[in-house]
Amino acid sequence: RAAAQPVAEQASARSAAALAALRSNVTAKEIQKLARKHERRARAGRATKGLLVLGIVAGGAYAAWRWWDKQANPDWLVEPPVATEVGDERSPLGTVDGSDRAVLDPEVEAKQAEAEGDVPGHDDRA
């Protein structure tokens, strides 16, 4: 009985559609156009569902790979790089042209002045 239910619903829907087509001016071309439209929508729905499932599977595989990688290489097991020591024998960095005075970019100078609290053109006495 449960298996016959969808068949009966389909038969009644088709007979109602046939009666409506006979009573009105619905052409076979319009019916075919509507059938193609339903078929396209069903195909697009299946494709969307397939892409969604594929995305979920890919996301799960990526999460599993990240978990597995974390288990194989935990943070506490990875050794930090060897510290490098800077000796005093090196001279301080200078400018490219050899002059002693370092010329800074105006934006850098403005940011340094702002950080020191000396903002040119800004009056704190409001």
Describe the structure in brief.
It contains three helices and no strands. It has 126 residues and is mostly helical. The protein has a domain at 7-72.
Please describe what this structure looks like.
- The chain is mainly α and 126 residues long.
- The chain has a domain at 7-72.
- Helices cover 60% and strands 0% of the residues.
- The protein is built from three helices and no strands.
- The chain is elongated.
Share of residues in strands: under 5%
Q: Based on helices, strands and strand pairing, what is the structural class?
A: mainly alpha
**Alpha carbon gyration radius:** 38 Å
Question: Which H/E pattern describes the elements?
Answer: HHH
For the biggest sheet, the summary is: none
Please estimate the helix content. Answer: 55-70%
Distance between the termini: 87 Å
Instruction: Extract low-pLDDT stretches.
Output: none
For the residues shown, what is the average pLDDT? 79
**Shape verdict:** elongated
Count of DSSP strands: 0
Helix segment tally: 3
Per-chain topology:
Layout: H1 4-23, H2 28-72, H3 106-116
Kindly list the characteristics that best describe this protein.
mainly alpha, single chain, 3 helices, 126 residues
